[in-house]
User: What shape does this take?
Amino acid sequence: MPFGQVLLPLAIVGAVRFGKRDGRLLTVLLMPLALSLMASLMGKYPYGGVRVSVFAAPALILCVAEGALPCWHWLRQRWQFAPAIIVAALGNPIWANCLSQRCALAANRFSRCECLRS
Assistant: This one.
């Protein structure tokens, strides 16, 4: 299950900060995404699939990392416990992966149980 939609606000804030600081860096980071979108519009490249867009992960991770701290401070000014939203958003992929692995292990153990076999 993709969690990129949850991190999109942080990535947008990070991209804006990169753009204000150094527009060339933002161009280098986002140009591969723009080119693949253009190729998709021409019907030459499948856009939106996780597997074919993995090359964009480093740029998006950098944008999310750049936007996390300003969002943290902005939320902290509004409500004391609001930064927990950012912690949950950043930790969500980690927790989901751990949960899915635990469920797979539990299902494997359950299927090996002798008493449930008929």
